[in-house]
């Protein structure tokens, strides 16, 4: 962290704080969210600098070490966009990659709209691109206690926060925003009341981190942060073309609470966002929260995680069901991934309904794929510590005749030759005609009868 340099630059009549590391013509600008500051990018700044880029992270006006405007309540998102433009001009930087987290995603994308010639690419974390004039936070009929609505009301958040010291306010917001549910206060409660005083910080956020944030919010206060983003969400922008044509990456934690805003998840997974950002790649981080860049700064995704992360959970489950329903082993080419084996237009197996898929997807959205990838795939060579390899209990093996598992080298012969019976002497084997790997779902009545008969015979 000591290698990160700090300077103050006069930008549009305010002294803005800029953190910087690295050199060269390839520049990455990091724009923070709330309750963050430049410090939230500490891990990523060092990483991109080590990769040969120059990293710049300003504190927005009224945040962190940057000067607070004389009238914070008049601050707008357009101010942040114009500040960024002026910073680049001040540094003599013609073109950049822009990275935005949380509400920082809005100036990141809108800067790209207003100044496409200055942007090489755009990355957002925790938020999708929402075109000017649209908003998900107020769609439908959200509860009155939703934190966004509460904090939009002048004085409501100020009175709530004032009951605590700054460090506790920042701590509470980090705890709330690290969860997978939207912070919603009851009618006669405030947002800060949602956090029990004994609740610990997230494991990846240290007391030292908290102290850094607290000391800077003690300096800046919350007047500007409450104005932008919360009280400026309905700001109007004069822009004709709302399409972002730059290469784009969106990184979402699978457990980011923002996915619970009305319409946001569907907007992302339906492909609607790609109508506005055609060159978009989306990556989901398993177990990731809203603060995914601090939670998993050094995360190197495994092969499957990276493959799955290109799609929403429902698509991953669908693809696996399609692949495993076939009679051949799924094998990807050298420069392809397993998910690439399924054409998006491929229908589900006839015996597997959209309703079935939704049930599975809902549960895997909750659990993620970390444990399923560990068990069975990454635990197959686990030593079990036993010398007894014979199973003497009565046993039944049900195999679909078209189960792709039979194509594993030596597998079918091991079964049909009787070799398996050397280890399971009391084994009965039944092959189900036309049966796939999911034979119990494909032919439930047939499998049901086989199981019930076996149970009856060995009661």
TrEMBL record:
It holds the Pfam family Abhydrolase_1. Residues 27-295 form the AB hydrolase-1 domain. InterPro entries: AB_hydrolase_1, AB_hydrolase_fold, Epox_hydrolase-like. The keyword tRNA processing does not apply. One of its GO terms (molecular function) is hydrolase activity. Keywords: Hydrolase. It comes from the Eukaryota. Belongs to the AB hydrolase superfamily. Epoxide hydrolase family. This is AB hydrolase-1 domain-containing protein. It comes from Aquilegia coerulea.
């Amino acid at each position: 962290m000591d290698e990160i340099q700090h300077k103050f630059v006069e930008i549009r009549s305010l002294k803005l704080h800029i953190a910087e590391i690295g050199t060269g013509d390839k520049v990455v600008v990091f724009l923070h969210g709330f309750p963050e500051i430049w410090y939230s990018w500490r891990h990523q700044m060092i990483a991109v600098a080590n990769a040969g880029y120059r990293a710049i992270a300003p504190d927005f006006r009224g945040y962190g070490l940057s000067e607070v405007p004389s009238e914070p309540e008049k601050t707008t998102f357009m101010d942040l966009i114009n500040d960024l433009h002026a910073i680049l001009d001040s540094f003599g930087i013609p073109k950049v990659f822009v990275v935005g987290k949380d509400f920082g995603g809005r100036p990141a994308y809108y800067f790209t709209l207003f100044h496409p010639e200055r942007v090489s690419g755009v990355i957002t974390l925790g938020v999708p691109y929402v075109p000017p004039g649209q908003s998900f936070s107020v769609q439908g009929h959200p509860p009155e206690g939703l934190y966004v609505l509460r904090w939009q009301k002048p004085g409501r958040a100020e009175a709530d926060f004032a009951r605590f010291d700054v460090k506790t306010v920042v701590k509470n917001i980090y705890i709330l925003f690290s969860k997978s549910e939207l912070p919603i206060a009851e009618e006669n409660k405030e947002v800060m009341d949602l956090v029990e005083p004994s609740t610990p910080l997230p494991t990846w956020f240290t007391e030292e981190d908290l102290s850094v944030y607290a000391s800077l919010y003690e300096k800046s206060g919350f007047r500007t942060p409450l104005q932008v983003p919360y009280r400026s969400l309905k700001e109007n922008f004069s822009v004709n073309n709302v399409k972002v044509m730059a290469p784009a990456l969106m990184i979402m934690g699978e457990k980011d609470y923002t996915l619970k805003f009305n319409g946001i998840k569907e907007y992302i997974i339906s492909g609607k966002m790609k109508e506005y950002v055609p060159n978009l790649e989306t990556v989901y981080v398993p177990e990731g929260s809203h603060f995914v860049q601090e939670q998993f700064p050094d995360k190197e995704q495994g092969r499957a995680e990276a493959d799955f992360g290109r799609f929403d959970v429902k698509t991953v489950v669908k693809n696996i069901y399609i692949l495993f329903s076939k009679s051949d082993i799924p094998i990807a080419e050298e420069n392809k991934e397993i998910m690439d084996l399924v054409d998006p237009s491929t229908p589900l197996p006839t015996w597997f309904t959209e309703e079935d898929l939704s049930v599975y997807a809902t549960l895997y959205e909750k659990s993620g794929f970390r444990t399923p990838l560990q068990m069975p795939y990454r635990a197959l060579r686990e030593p079990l510590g036993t010398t007894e390899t014979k199973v003497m209990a009565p046993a039944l093996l049900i195999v679909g005749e078209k189960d792709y598992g039979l194509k594993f080298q030596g597998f079918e012969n091991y079964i049909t030759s009787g070799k398996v019976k050397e280890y399971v002497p009391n084994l009965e084997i039944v092959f189900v005609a036309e049966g796939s790997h999911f034979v119990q779902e494909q032919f439930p009545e047939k499998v049901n009868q086989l199981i019930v008969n076996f149970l009856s015979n060995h009661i």
